[in-house]
Amino acid sequence: MAMSLGVLGPAGTHSEAAAAYLKRQTGEDYKLVLFADIFDCLQAVENGEVDSALVPVENSLEGAINITLDTLARSEGLTVWRELIWPVHNQLLARRRGEIKRIYSHAQPISQCRDFLLQHYPQAELIKVASTARAAEIVAEAPADSGSAAIATARAGELLGLVPIATEIQDSAANCTRFFQVGRQALSFLPKEKLLVICQIDGQKAGALFEVLKEFAQRGINMTRIESRPARTELGAYIFFFDLEYSDSPQLEEALSAVEKKSIWLRNLGTFPVLTVN
Ligand SMILES: O=C(O)C(=O)C[C@]1(C(=O)O)C=C[C@@H](O)C=C1
């Protein structure tokens, strides 16, 4: 029976394209369920409404997707199943060629295309909406002479009959976004390449972060990313996200229990393999 996979919709988002790839690559039979925002996607996994979700976590040009990090930090019982590194190609789409007065998109692609926009459309009003495909829908629904355009995927343009005004407009050809497939129970049969650990450290104490990093460093555990987000309790309280390379060694277990002792709380979101697009 097909498993349900939540993604940011409507049809034509980068997330939907990444999910279609995940489905082909893993050979797993997923039924895609589209959500209006990333928070709803993750909530649906937590509630058991869908089996898993594929959500963006970090972009190579713009960094963290905060809503994903914040929701993962506050969730109970979510685990990371897989990481997917997805190349992101942005197009400028409109109903027809002509003067462009306003450009709609998701906040991330607007930032990913900052140089292009400054160079070609410095006067255009930039309007952030829930997803690139939603931006394309708004443009498709507007009158043809409204001067509206969207930064979205080529597929969104095809689905909605928009024409490409400019293609590959991201500021780097290597633009890519890391996605996490997130589920509830851990999938122990998957290869273990990395793990995600989230913890809150007492920021009042001098050297508190150093003390935590030392536990990983002195056991030779490679950290591939560190990110911090506000703990949302008071100014100056932070949560840290550590992506670590997995090793089947007692050192990793020792480091995690040492870090847990030095943390206010620690959550291990599990081990996962990394998929890249060839
Ligand atoms: O709006 C979309 O198309 C999405 O899938 C969201 C999103 C994001 O949140 O970063 C996903 C990948 C790309 O970086 C651009 C946008």
From TrEMBL:
Signal peptide: none
Chain ranges of the ACT domain: 197-278
InterPro entries reported for this sequence: ACT-like_dom_sf (IPR045865), ACT_dom (IPR002912), Preph_deHydtase (IPR001086), Preph_deHydtase_CS (IPR018528)
Molecular-function GO terms, alphabetical: prephenate dehydratase activity
Pfam families in UniProt: ACT, PDT
Keywords: Amino-acid biosynthesis, Aromatic amino acid biosynthesis, Lyase, Phenylalanine biosynthesis
CDD domains assigned: ACT_CM-PDT, PBP2_Sa-PDT_like
Boundaries of every Prephenate dehydratase domain copy: 4-184
Pathway assigned to this chain's UniProt record: Amino-acid biosynthesis; L-phenylalanine biosynthesis; phenylpyruvate from prephenate: step 1/1
Catalytic activity: prephenate + H(+) = 3-phenylpyruvate + CO2 + H2O
UniProt record, GO biological process: L-phenylalanine biosynthetic process
EC number(s) reported in the record: 4.2.1.51
GO cellular component, one term: cytoplasm
UniProt keyword Oxidoreductase present: no
PANTHER family: PREPHENATE DEHYDRATASE P PROTEIN (PTHR21022), PREPHENATE DEHYDRATASE-RELATED (PTHR21022:SF19)
Record-given protein name: Prephenate dehydratase
Originating organism: Selenomonas ruminantium
